Amino acid sequence: MEEIKRLVYSRELRWNEIMVIAMRLFRENIKVVAAGMLVIGLPISILLTLIQGRVMSMLEIADQVSAKTLVLSPQESVNLLQQMMTNNVLLMAVTVFLEAIFTIGVAKATKWRLEGRRFSASKAFVEAMSLEPVVVKVGIVYMILFLLGTLLVIPAIYLGVVWCLYLYCIALGGRRSVDALGHSRVLVRSRWWRTFGFLIILAAISYCWNSVLSLIFMLFPDNFAVNCVYTCITYLTQGFVVSATAILFLNRESGLFGMASLQEPEEVQEAEGEKAE
């Protein structure tokens, strides 16, 4: 592991190197990922399945209206539109505010495993939950700006890429305010296309893994419980994605700002204690 650590912190890695390292760390952290999947992913999956069910019902009504098989009054149409917008915002809020706990916990576990530190799954996710106030504060700004960006497709894609590391800036880079968005932009700005390609590769891997899971779950009846379990299990895929993105962040951060920028408070205290001695 020491050799991998030196590799991550010594030079800019190619995407295939990041994937290989991420897969190894993901395998070694599989118990942490599984714990996060059950403790955090399962409740979120129930929420997501409930909201997605409501969204699908409203889309069916909208399809019937567009096919002229169902007629709504102007007030009913406005109410339907408002409910669809509300549920879509709720979906985004769950992703931004609650899934962040899973992301930060797995990201911290990835860094600690890479550096050979001893830790437990509970420590990783307790620390992640302690950062929730920061996540909410930054996430509100992120949601507002991103939703404004979605009015035009190109700005939304650009912002989605330049801010893809903001949670890792909070989790691993010590950023505790909206400057996490700005710092993510600094890390991505000069390598936008490379980062975009990396995210496309991760999306393709996630799609393939989740497609296999979906085929397996087609053997079961389509009901609320099965949908919840399927959504929960996809957090295993998300665990690998987070591991790979954490390696990308650590590699970029150490290359641009040095390893000192990645020191956590307890590491700083240990270093100060050693100096005092």
From TrEMBL:
A Pfam family that this protein carries is: DUF7847
Q: Which residues form a coiled coil?
A: none
Q: Where is the signal peptide?
A: none
What InterPro entries does this protein's entry cite? DUF7847 (IPR057169)
For the DUF7847 domain, which residue ranges apply? 31-230
Positions of transmembrane segments: 32-51, 89-107, 128-148, 154-174, 195-218, 224-250
| Keywords per UniProt | Membrane, Transmembrane, Transmembrane helix
Does the record bear Transmembrane helix in its keywords?
yes
From the Swiss-Prot or TrEMBL record, give the protein name. Answer: DUF7847 domain-containing protein
Species of origin: Anaerotignum lactatifermentans DSM 14214
Q: What is the lineage of its organism?
A: Bacteria, Bacillati, Bacillota, Clostridia, Lachnospirales
